[in-house]
Amino acid sequence: MHGSVSLLFALLAEATANGSWAAVVGLSGISLVAAAEAGVELARLAVVPRPGGDPAGVVAALLDGVDLVAVGGTRNIADSDARRLSARARNRGSVLLPFGPWAGAEVQLRCADASWRGLGQGHGYLRERAVTVHAGGRGAASRPRSCRLLLPARDGAVGVPAGEPAEIARPRLRSVVGC
Q1: CA-based nearest residue to 15, from 92, 61, 60, 68
Q2: 26, 76 in Cβ contact below 8 A?
Q3: Residue 38 class from Cβ within 10 Å (0-12 exposed, 13-18 middle, 19+ buried)?
Q4: H/E stretch holding 61
Q5: CA nearest neighbour of 175 among 3, 5, 10, 18
Q6: 175 CB contacts (<8 Å, ≥6 apart)?
Q7: Of all residues in the chain, what percent are helix, strand and coil, respectively (each to 5)?
Q8: Using CA atoms, how far apart are residues 80 and 103, in angstroms rounded to an integer?
Q9: Strand pairing partners for 46?
Q10: Has residue 152 got a pLDDT over 80?
Q11: pLDDT at position 165, please?
Q12: Residue 166 pLDDT > 80, yes or no?
């Protein structure tokens, strides 16, 4: 995933709402208030803002006991460590969610074409943000896909902009690994 905190929160919210435990490592500027407003179950979230001199070791330890681990500061993790951590996540049935470039990532998500809605003629409140989420990767994810989502919608959750095809009218994030 590249750079969208709203998308990160949407993924964390879906996981924690369904009973999974999650951790965020190396994202010192993350707002827990914003995470809670996006639906993240804070009682099921561990936060390690500064993992110290061995971020790969911290991530490895968390993968042993947590269903989903989001990792910031990905440039501080060597490519060889990134591949080992990916293999560890697969072996443990965990989800490793890098927030930035990651060697050997199965799926890469990125947001583009963001536009805010809600302002009138220079007044009012920002109500929702429409983005295009692009997904691509290897294996089953090798065919690039994209969809337009509201991150956040007016209610703070994930939504679909008006006028999108009916088959995606109710987006549902689903687990792809045995969590």
Answers
A1: 68
A2: yes
A3: buried
A4: helix 55-63
A5: 18
A6: 15, 18, 20, 95
A7: 30, 30, 40
A8: 8
A9: 23
A10: yes
A11: 62
A12: no
Report residue 48 as tokens: 């390690």
Q: Nearest-CA neighbor of 90 among 161, 49, 139?
A: 139
What value, to the nearest 5°, has the Cα angle with vertex 8 and ends 5 and 12?
140
With cut-offs at 50, 70 and 90, classify the pLDDT of residue 140.
confident
Cα–Cα distance measured from residue 35 to residue 119, given in angstroms and rounded to the nearest whole number: 24
Please give the backbone phi and psi of residue 178, each rounded to the nearest 5 degrees, phi first.
Answer: -60, 65
Q: How far apart are CA 55 and CA 115, in angstroms?
A: 34
pLDDT 10s digits, 22-59:
999 999 989 999 999 989 999 999 999 999 999 999 99
Q: What is the pLDDT of residue 105?
A: 83
Q: Is the dihedral of CA 8, 10, 12, 15 positive or negative?
A: negative
Average of pLDDT values for 134-141? 83
Strands 68-71 and 95-98: parallel
CB 107 within 8 A of CB 139: no
- Express each pLDDT in 66-113 by its tens digit: 999 999 988 899 999 999 999 999 999 999 999 988 887 888 888 999
